[in-house]
Design goal:
It is built from 1 helix and 8 strands; from the N terminus they run αββββββββ. It is mostly beta strands. It folds into 2 domains: 30 residues; 92 residues, no CATH class. Strand 2 and strand 3 form a beta hairpin. The longest helix is centred in the first third of the chain and has 16 residues. The protein is globular, with a radius of gyration of 22 Å. The N and C termini lie far apart (72 Å).
Length: 129
């Protein structure tokens, strides 16, 4: 066996040893949350051809240590996609009328404030509590 092949074998054995039994993470190495791998999800259909999607996300943890994924909202029509700025949510928005929806800002996996969001421009406006 050539020196190069020996080196490759040693590296492969070391890489496999770093993993747990059946490809599981080793002790003390929690599985990573691959936020990029989460598919967009249609969550609301509104009059006028508007659809609302959960898109990109960020991992979060509640006060008890339970993980969740807080996701952004995107409003789509046949001709446009508008991201709702600075609003990560862990709940499904609800339609208020033909042109607005209610979405809840999420912090540490819990709703923290409610917003009225225009389906036309995607701008959120905080609702009084």
């Amino acid at each position: 066996m050539t020196e190069r092949k020996q080196l490759l074998v040693v590296l492969m054995v070391a890489a496999l040893a770093a993993c747990g039994g059946r490809g599981e993470p080793g002790p003390g190495n929690p599985p990573s949350t691959d936020v990029a791998a989460v598919a967009d999800s249609l969550v609301l259909v509104a009059p006028g051809g508007f659809t609302v999607w959960l898109t990109e996300g960020r991992p979060a943890t509640d006060l008890k240590g339970t993980p969740c994924l807080e996701r952004t909202l995107e409003i789509r029509t046949d001709s446009a996609r508008r991201k709702v700025p600075l609003l990560y949510t862990s709940t499904i928005p609800t339609l208020l009328d033909d042109t607005t929806m209610r979405a809840e800002l999420s912090h540490d996996c819990l709703p923290s404030a409610a917003y009225r969001v225009s389906l036309r421009d995607g701008m959120p406006h905080r609702l009084p509590q």
